[in-house]
Amino acid sequence: MSFTELAGRHLDLVTAPFTLPKSRILVFRDEDAADGTLRVHTSEYERWLEDCRVLDGLAVLDAAGAVLPVTDVLPYRIAFGDDVSLTFDGPGALSVGVPDFGSDAGHAGVSGGTAGVADASSEAGLGLRVRLTHPDGRVQEHPLGAGLRIEVAADRTATVSPGDHAAALAACAAQWDAWFAKCPVVRDDLQQMAAFCWWVLGANIVSLPALGDARGVVPSKIGYVGVWQWDAYFIAVGLRHGDPELAREQLEIAFRFPGADGQLPDVVHELGVLASSDDLPEGDRAKLRRTGSAVADPTAPVPLTKPPLAAWALRKVLEAEDAPEWARAQLATVIRSQDWWFAGSDLDGDGMPEYGHPYSSGLDDSPIFDGPIPTAAPDLGAYLVRQDREIADLLSRYEPAAATGRFSERAERTEQLLHDMWDAQAGRFLAFGDGQRIDSDTVVGLMPLLTGTLPDDIRDVLRAAVDDSARFALEWGLPTVAASDPDFSPERMWRGPIWINTSALVAEGLEASGYAERARQLREQTVRLVVHGGGPHEYYNPRTGFKAERATTAFGWSAALFLDLAVTLSRD
Is 411 in contact with 342 (CB distance < 8 Å)? Predict the structure, then answer.
């Protein structure tokens, strides 16, 4: 079975909409709909789907006026009844028509052709109509004829004109064929989900005209239409296995707008960047004012960024395809960003940088931010140690004449400060909010494993925590807050659910710390969770192994890291 068909098994038009790489159009069906009526939305930065309605209804009617049901979905078309299909006609339009389904089966493969697509004016199309329901309540019906093209304008209005459905179907199928030709080949038991995750990455590509038509792979076209710095790193790590060029492009976007002091922005999006609390929408700033946090008050701007995993991602992308000149250019930006953390985010001047805002951690709702801010956290310390060492290694490889001593020395100093966050009696690393101890037992306390150089006694205690069924060794994986902690909640974001990125990082930390077999087991458990849960969701309930109720579906970094884990496990 082709990768196209494998991915199609998951395209339910509810958790996985019909879309096209670089398009902003999304097609859904109502989960409880009794017929084949679809909805059409656009995908926009900081706008919910309800605010981006194009058509509240798109239905194909037979000669008697009955709505044809959706009978099949593949990445390049939605089938209605026996004869009609919907496809894309370029990134800004949809096409409805009647192909020759007898020959269409030959196009289900990665390299299938388009021979046999019939003229939509054939007998099968007689009497068919397309009914469009607009958000303002207008209802229009159009004879199907030789095919209809539905163009979506920037203001979300839909314009209907005659179209060449056969050509549109062929072009859309060819585009997806080219994408699936790059899909990583993994173990048989993981290949179906790998094909779907590869579809997710392709589906989440958006065009960013303000950046020279750059291709950003966004976390989700459902609510997360921008290039978040942390997401770009994880997504690039997965993309490298099939499309190293696109992986490099994600890092270029994340590195493209450093501040004068070297700080990298939290988000790059079509309207600009999000780099400080001054850049937040007014609704978010009002919410922050209500929290009463002086640090978060919009009258005192706070830098917004994401954890320092830039060099980690850069090294992994270069492992897939070496690009020395490109690497040297990116490395300069990474070094300036790393220096910013120590110069611009060591808010108490003790040598250990802090998170000045929960957004900068990537774990916005973690209980480590229930106390005062700024927050010194063991995950940040571990990332900084790892990044300085990665920088030294990359410089040795790409700039052999460059001095690397300051990075190695700073890593040693930072690791000593990290060790000061260890509480031997509690048996874990602690976070500190504005100097006050935070006792929450969270996954950030496991991240120091990433240094690979912890003292044996600390390393062994962390390994034991990973194995403790009362804390982190739950049936479906590694929760973000220990199950024994009072703050644990299986559904609340970052307060208990399993996230694929934290699980993947802890697995890498276990391997770096000498526990290769335990790392493999955690990776196996994590890919099993994604398969069991039905796809790469934003986060998962650790008790059931299914999508948490409020989690986004078809989530970019979950798809990318599933692919990375699947490739790693398939090599073992």
Answer: no
Per DSSP bridges, beta strands 70-74 and 139-143 are unpaired
Lowest mean pLDDT among 35-39, 317-321, 508-512: 35-39
Report how far residue 246's alpha carbon sits from residue 267's, in angstroms, rounded to the nearest whole number: 18
Instruction: Count helices and strands (H / E) in the chain.
Output: 15, 21
SS3 554: coil
Q: What is the pLDDT of residue 287?
A: 61
CB-CB contact of 142 with 129 (8 Å): yes
Q: Which two tokens stand for residue 227?
A: 């290039």
Question: In this predicted structure, what is the pLDDT of residue 289?
Answer: 58
**Same-domain status, 222 and 142:** no
Where among 112, 145, 180 does a domain terminate? 180
Give pLDDT tens digits for 63-103: 999 999 999 999 999 999 988 999 999 999 999 999 753 34
φ, ψ at 442 (rounded to 5°): -125, 170
pLDDT for the residue 371: 87
136 by Cβ neighbours in 10 Å (0-12 / 13-18 / 19+) ranks as exposed
- Mark whether 56 and 114 lie in a shared domain: yes
Query: What Rg value do the Cα atoms of the chain yield, rounded?
Result: 25
Q: Which domain holds residue 24?
A: 3-180
- 294: Cβ–Cβ under 8 A, 6 or more apart, which residues? 300
Contacts of 192 (CB under 8 A, 6+ apart): 6, 9
Residue partners of 357: CB distance under 8 A and separation at least 6: 277, 295, 296, 302, 303, 304, 373
Give the residue carrying structure tokens 């314009």: 159
What pLDDT was estimated at residue 288?
Answer: 61
Same domain, yes or no: 347 and 310: yes
Round the average pLDDT of the chain to a whole number and report it. 92
The residues facing 546 across adjacent strands are none
> 42-51, 310-319, 341-350: which range is least confident on average?
42-51
pLDDT of residue 286: 66
Tokens of 14: 């509810």
In SS3 terms, 112-173 reads as CCCCCCCCCCCHHHCCCEEEEECCCCCEEEEECCCCEEEEECCCCCEEEEECCHHHHHHHHH
Segment 20-39 shows an average pLDDT of 90
Burial call 28-39: b when 16+ CB within 10 Å, e when fewer:
bbeeebeebbbb
Contacts 24+ apart (CB under 8 A), 462-471: 462/428, 462/513, 463/510, 463/513, 463/515, 463/518, 465/427, 465/428, 466/506, 466/510, 466/518, 466/522, 467/518, 471/441
Which residues, 6 or more positions from 457, have their beta carbon under 8 angstroms from its beta carbon?
none
Please tell me whether residues 174 and 192 are part of one structural domain. Answer: no
What is the tally of structural domains in the chain? Answer: 2
pLDDT at 111 over 50: no
Distance of CA 377 to the CA centre of its chain: 24
**Beta bridge partner(s), residue 141:** 131
What predicted TM-score, i.e. pTM, was given to this entire model? 0.94
For the stretch 256-297, pLDDT in tens is: 999 999 999 999 998 899 999 888 777 776 666 555 455 555
